[in-house]
Each structure stands twice: as structure tokens, then as C-alpha cells.
């Protein structure tokens, strides 16, 4: 599956790697398939006959030090080659005819918990300052000792834990202010003209500066703690100094700090259900923003589906149109319903009650009145929209005005998409209420089993490493390990697992 030439760009031209890169790639996948840390994976290479057979090693081969695996992962990340483990497997399978494009695929996402502990804002600022001090004492111990007050050795001598912190609001605010002053004092010293310039680029110092901007501000009264309404959005807020890319997010009843992973797999009934694409994103990234990125990546792999099954979280009329027009993909997913109050209250007049004349750029209302203006604009994402207004003279005396608008201007305003996008959206909304749609969409549920396998059996829920790139490498290796397990089952004739049911239900339906 792998050979050393695939990884040649990750190594210098001079010298020879301590271990063959192709073997390290296989060991990396095996350790994720069996949930082994580096030490145990290296021990398995040394002691297990089945691993030695697969890796082409003599029985007396002593193996390698476990640190080689960490170095290999670092080379993959720094060389932007994390996807190579999965893409190479897919390439081989495609050459052998196991994988084909223009089949049926399904995609879903799940949350990933970062390898950091949850911190309150007070814990965050204290931990960030302590992290910066611990980092600086390694690189400039003498400068730090002569710069910061000696009293800090007592204030920042142990890890910041919530149970050690004050309980009353006044005491916590006083401690926040003190920590804020200390942080600004250190930053002022670091950015002073006589301080070494390179100190400002130490990662822990950069993190300290960002965290202080997000949690404190200075004015004539001194250092102040930012309150709700004056803090950055979750997509920007740093939650831990040890993983500055992890973000806080909430989905229904689930709250977490970390990332989100999107898995796309083949689901044709006559082929193995293999994961063909993995995408790791920030926890705050919306699913609807990812569908186009998935299609773009699949096009690069020449593995575009003919039919793509997704849940409502991915639904967006612009993505629906783009997938149809650019990639020729039929997206099978329930579209979000019209959220206007008119659509929620029958017999109010929603958009579907109006007749649109696209050529004349005019809309006729249920009472027979025509629109007065038709203006092209854009939505928040920059997609084109039309804003259509009716005359006040028509709407104000209308006997059905309460069924149409509650506007203080006493006239109806409609926002509609472009003709082609509007037509596709209306057709999709009508299609999702048919038996044919329900039958096709039922296959999407299988992706939940894939997520369960990777999360439960392969322990993907919690990140092993810190940082988005390293976390993505974990997801790639996990997906590759899952594919190998599925290929073995496919070639051995193991049937697809069926949806589990309770013992009671099994007895009653027997």
C-alpha cells in the first residue's frame, strides 16, 4: 500500500531514515486500529509475530524506539502530508476497481473534544500567564528573574484550579484585575525597546497577548475585566493556552471545547462502505458551510458521488444549486422550511401563495395586486437575492393585510432567490414529502454507524494531540484503520451490520 518514495519529500536528501517510512505509515495505522499509544505500538513491532509478518521484518528484528513514531507524525504535519495515509489507500483501491466515482455517498459530522481541560475565564487568564512565565523561564531565565517582581513566585507557583480560587464575585473580580495588571506588566516589559525582539514571537507570548486583548481592556481607570457583551464571539475566543485553535461550541444539549469532524463514506449496496474523505474544522464552523468544501475535495480525488445523502444541518439552497450545476450531484437532504410567521400560521400568505413572473420581474399577491419594485441585492454570505416591495396604497386598505404583513409601513416585502435557485429549492421541498424521497433518504442513517465505530471502537471522540493539524492527522489515521477493517470484512464475506433493536422488539416482530 505504501512505499518510501511517497514520503521522500518529508526527509532530507542526505543520510538515511532510522526506519523505513512505509513501515512507519503502516505502524501508525495499526496503532490507531488497536488504540495503542506510541510505546505499546513500538513494543508490538518488537514482539508480535503478526505485526512483523505484515511489516516484512525478521523475527529477531529489535524494532525501533517509540519516539520515531512521534517524529514521523511531525514530518507528516509539517510537510502538509497528513491526508497521504488515506488518499494512498483510496488510490490503490480505485486502481483495483473496488472504488468507483459517481456512486452513492453520505456525510455527517460529530464533535471532537480537545486534549485540554475546560477552563473558566479566570482559570484561563491565570493559566495563560503561568504558561507564558514557564515558557520564558526556559529561554531567558536571567532576564525574567530580573524583570518580574519576586512576589509573583507565590502567586504563580501552582496550577490554577477552580477549587483554589475565590468564591465571592468581589474577590474573583479583584483577582482578575490583579492578574490583568500582571499580564500587562509582563507584556510591556517584553515589548520594551531594550528587550530582545525575538521574545515577542515566542508562541506563549503571542497567546498571552491575544488572551489579554480578548479578556481585558485599559482606560483612564486602569485595567478592567471584559463583561458579557464585550467579549469576542466563540469562533474567535481562545479557550486554552495549550491549544489555541480549540473552540467552544454547543449543539442542542452537547457543549464542548475542541473541533468537529466531517466523515464522507461510500454507501452503494454492492460495494464496501469505505470512508473517502475526512475534514476537520473548528467546532464553531456550521455544517452548511462544509458541503461545497467536501465536493471540491472529492472532485480532486475523482470520487464525486452521483447521489449525496446529508442531514438538514447541511441544507442550503445555494449549496444545492452549486452541487447540481457545478458537480452534477443530486443532494438528497431535507431542506429547512420557510421560517417566516406567515408560513407557520395558516391561512396566512407565505411566499408560495404569490405568483412570480420572472421575465417581467413582478410578483402578484393572492389579492391580485402587483409589486411596485424589484431590486437585486445580497444576503449575509454574499449570495444574490431579490427584494420585492408592494405599494402602501395597495397594502394599507387591503382586507387581508393581517394575513400578509405586520409591518409598520403597512406593506409587504418579499425576499426571493434567483430563478434557478428558487426553482431547485421549491422542487426539493416538495420532493422531501414523497415516499420516493423517504426511501432514498433512509440510507443516510448508516453514517451514524460509521461515526459510532470511529468514536467508540477507535476512540476518536477525544483528541490525542493538540492543534488542528495534529488532530486532523488522528482523524485520517482513524479513518484509514476503519477502512482496512471494513475491507477485511468485505473480502471475508461478512454481511453489513443491521440496526440493533431491543430484545423485546425482536421477540414481538419475530
Task: Outline the structure in words.
- Helix 2 packs across helix 3 and helix 6 crosses helix 7.
- With 510 residues, the protein is of the alpha+beta class.
- The mean pLDDT is 93.
- Strands 1, 4, 5, 6, 7 and 8 form a 6-stranded mixed beta sheet that branches.
Task: Outline the secondary-structure elements.
Layout: H1 21-33, H2 38-47, H3 49-55, H4 67-78, H5 84-95, E1 104-113, H6 121-139, H7 141-147, H8 152-155, H9 169-190, H10 203-215, E2 216-219, E3 222-225, E4 247-251, E5 254-266, E6 275-282, H11 291-300, E7 307-309, H12 317-327, E8 330-332, H13 341-344, E9 355-357, E10 362-364, E11 373-378, E12 384-389, H14 392-395, E13 413-417, H15 419-431, H16 435-441, H17 446-457, H18 468-491, H19 503-509
Parallel strand pairs: 1-7, 7-8
Antiparallel strand pairs: 1-5, 2-3, 4-5, 5-6, 9-10, 11-12, 12-13
Helix pairs in contact: 1-2, 1-4, 1-18, 2-3, 6-7, 6-9, 6-10, 9-10, 11-12, 12-15
Global shape: flat
User: How many E strands?
Assistant: 13
Unreliably modeled segments = none
Radius of gyration: 29 Å
Share of residues in helices:
40-55%
Q: Whole-number average pLDDT?
A: 93
Indicate the structural class: alpha+beta
Distance between the termini: 45 Å
* Largest sheet entry: 6 strands, mixed
- How much of the sequence is in beta strands? 5-15%
Query: What count of helical segments does DSSP give?
Result: 19
Key attributes of the depicted protein:
single chain; 510 residues; alpha+beta; 6-stranded mixed beta sheet; 3-stranded antiparallel beta sheet; 19 helices; 13 strands
Amino acid at each position: 500500500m505504501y512505499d518510501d518514495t511517497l514520503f521522500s519529500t518529508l526527509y532530507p536528501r542526505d543520510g538515511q531514515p532510522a526506519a523505513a517510512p512505509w513501515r512507519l505509515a503502516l505502524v501508525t495505522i495499526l496503532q490507531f486500529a488497536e488504540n495503542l499509544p506510541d510505546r505499546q505500538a513500538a513494543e508490538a513491532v518488537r514482539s508480535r509475530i503478526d505485526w512483523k509478518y505484515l511489516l516484512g521484518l525478521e523475527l529477531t528484528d529489535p524494532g525501533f524506539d517509540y519516539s520515531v513514531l512521534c517524529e514521523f507524525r511531525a514530518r507528516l504535519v509539517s510537510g502538509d502530508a497528513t491526508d497521504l495515509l488515506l488518499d494512498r489507500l483510496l488510490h490503490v483501491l480505485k486502481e483495483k476497481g473496488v472504488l468507483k466515482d459517481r456512486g452513492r455517498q453520505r456525510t455527517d459530522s460529530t464533535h471532537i473534544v480537545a486534549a485540554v481541560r475546560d477552563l473558566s475565564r479566570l482559570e484561563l487568564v491565570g493559566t495563560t500567564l503561568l504558561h507564558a512565565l514557564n515558557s520564558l523561564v526556559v529561554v531567558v531565565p536571567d532576564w525574567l528573574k530580573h524583570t518580574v517582581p519576586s512576589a509573583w513566585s507565590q502567586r504563580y507557583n501552582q496550577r490554577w484550579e477552580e477549587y483554589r480560587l475565590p468564591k465571592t464575585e468581589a474577590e474573583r473580580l479583584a483577582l482578575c484585575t490583579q492578574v490583568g495588571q500582571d499580564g500587562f506588566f509582563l507584556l510591556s516589559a517584553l515589548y520594551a525597546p531594550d528587550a530582545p525582539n525575538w521574545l515577542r514571537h515566542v508562541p506563549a507570548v503571542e497567546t498571552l497577548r491575544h488572551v489579554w486583548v480578548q479578556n481585558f481592556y485599559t482606560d483612564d481607570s486602569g485595567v478592567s475585566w471584559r463583561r458579557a457583551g464585550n467579549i469576542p464571539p466563540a469562533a474567535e475566543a481562545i479557550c486554552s493556552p495549550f491549544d489555541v485553535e480549540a473552540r467552544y461550541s454547543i449543539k442542542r444539549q452537547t457543549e464542548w471545547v475542541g473541533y468537529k469532524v466531517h466523515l464522507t463514506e461510500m454507501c452503494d449496496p454492492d460495494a464496501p462502505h469505505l470512508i473517502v474523505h475526512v475534514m476537520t474544522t473548528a467546532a464553531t464552523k456550521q455544517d452548511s458551510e462544509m458541503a461545497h468544501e467536501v465536493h471540491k475535495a472529492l472532485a480532486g480525488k475523482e470520487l464525486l458521488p452521483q447521489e449525496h445523502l446529508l442531514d438538514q444541518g447541511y441544507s442550503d439552497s445555494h449549496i444545492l444549486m452549486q452541487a447540481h450545476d457545478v458537480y452534477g450531484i443530486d443532494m438528497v437532504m431535507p431542506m429547512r422550511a420557510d421560517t417566516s410567521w406567515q408560513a407557520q400560521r395558516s391561512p396566512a400568505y407565505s411566499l408560495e401563495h404569490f405568483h412570480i413572473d420572472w421575465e417581467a420581474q413582478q410578483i402578484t399577491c393572492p389579492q391580485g395586486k402587483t409589486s411596485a419594485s424589484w431590486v437585486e441585492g445580497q444576503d449575509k454570505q454574499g449570495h444574490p437575492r431579490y427584494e420585492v416591495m408592494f405599494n402602501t396604497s395597495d397594502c394599507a386598505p387591503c382586507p387581508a393585510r393581517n394575513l400578509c404583513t405586520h409591518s409598520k409601513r403597512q406593506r409587504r416585502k418579499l425576499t426571493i432567490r434567483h430563478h434557478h435557485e428558487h426553482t431547485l429549492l421549491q422542487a426539493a421541498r416538495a420532493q422531501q414529502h414523497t415516499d420516493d424521497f423517504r426511501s432514498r433518504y433512509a440510507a443516510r442513517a448508516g453514517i451514524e454507524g460509521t461515526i459510532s465505530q470511529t468514536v467508540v471502537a477507535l476512540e476518536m471522540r477525544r483528541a490525542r494531540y493538540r492543534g488542528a493539524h495534529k488532530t486532523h492527522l488522528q482523524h485520517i489515521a482513524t479513518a484509514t484503520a476503519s477502512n482496512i477493517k471494513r475491507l477485511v470484512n468485505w473480502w471475508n464475506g461478512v454481511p453489513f451490520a443491521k440496526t440493533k433493536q431491543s430484545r423485546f422488539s425482536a421477540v414481538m416482530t419475530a
